Amino acid sequence: MINPRKICIVTGTRAEYGLLFWLMKEIQAADGLQLQIIVTGAHLSSEFGLTSKQIESDGFVINKKVDMLLSSDTEVGITKSMGLGMIGFADALNDLNPDLMVLLGDRYEIFVAASAATVARICIAHIHGGETTEGAFDESFRHSITKMSHVHFTSTDIYRNRVIQLGEHPNRVFNVGAAGIDNIVRLQLLNKSQFQKEINFQLGKKNVLVTYHPVTLENRTAENQFQALLDVLAQEKTLKIIFTKANSDTNGRIINNMIDDFVTKYKDQSISFTSMGQLRYLSALQFVDGVIGNSSSGLIEVPSFKIGTVNIGDRQLGRIKTDSVIDCKPNQKSIKKAIIKLFSEDFKKKSKLVISPYGMGGAAKKIVTELEEISLDGILKKSFYDIEL
């Protein structure tokens, strides 16, 4: 019998793991594939929920843990974390020796993993390449990971074309739709009673979910911009608010401390979570009126629930958006105007009619088919594919 192809999944955050969950399950079930898992970043930090335990409770075996997250989220701290990660991934990859590494997205942890795999001559498959987020340094990491990768799974045809524009051969670039849509299709979501019991919080007549992260290409704007949002929310006395805390980006801890202070002051009106997990997060989207913040989920997953998104600032600048997304500037006046629109009847009707450009699900199965069938012979030596002008 031919030895199964060893597929190494790397995950560094709760959100990323949620997007990879069904792919990991499909690899686990495939006869011709052997799943390896490397966990790193915020997964290994108690401050961010120690979500590696969730991975294990979901039935997965973690093969290696690369501890790289320092207590500092300054520019210097993040850079030093990347250095530690490079050292850890060198050892992990040497021990596991995978045939192919699967990476999703654009975070600095994933950039480090890709860099180590490149030096180790390990083939890389990249998910969600070709996208743009002009307000975050993830933009540069994402395109760099694309150039270090050999197989590509994009979420739309526009993004597929962009990966090809970067010089990747069309035969190795596949539009499979967004990985997160699989969760919407395949998870058995909680009903309203179950959800309220699960989070120990009663919803009201008006409800929103807030998920906000630093705009990492701006210099120390997190506090002022997020305060503008909190000031507007504080004026909405009948609004129930569910916060999900920021990730381990530069100045993320500033946002999380501000959330704690707000929830302490408005404890009857709000609640916060370090990590909701995909089940509770997606279940929430069934019952809230909209999502407010600057997370990619507001643009990719939320439209499938036929509700609106208030997208604040430039963090997601350049991503494909539906008519259910309201862009606004990171100041009180613009945010307040956007929230008023979010609750307007005309906008609610429009949101119910949107069709997501990110597919209808099935990404995990499509990816596994290619992981099983694609030839790895000579794949490390890439020629630059020139498009005809």
Describe this structure in words.
- With 389 residues, the protein is α/β, with parallel strands linked by helices.
- The chain has 2 domains: 5-177 and 362-373, Glycogen Phosphorylase B (Rossmann fold); 190-351, Rossmann fold, CATH 3.40.50.
- The protein is 41% helix and 16% strand.
- The chain is built from 15 helices and 13 strands.
- The chain has helices at 14-29, 52-57, 75-96, 108-119, 138-148, 157-165, 180-186, 192-199, 222-235, 252-265, 277-285, 297-300, 332-342, 345-351, 363-373, and strands spanning 5-11, 33-40, 64-66, 100-104, 123-127, 151-154, 173-175, 206-211, 239-244, 270-273, 290-293, 308-312, 325-328.
- The strands form 2 sheets. It has a 7-stranded parallel beta sheet with strand order 3-2-1-4-5-6-7, sandwiched between helices. It has a 6-stranded parallel beta sheet with strand order 10-9-8-11-12-13.
- Helix 1 packs across helix 15 and helix 4 packs parallel to helix 5 (138-148).
- The longest helix is centred in the N-terminal third of the chain and has 22 residues, at 75-96.
- It is globular and about 60 Å long.
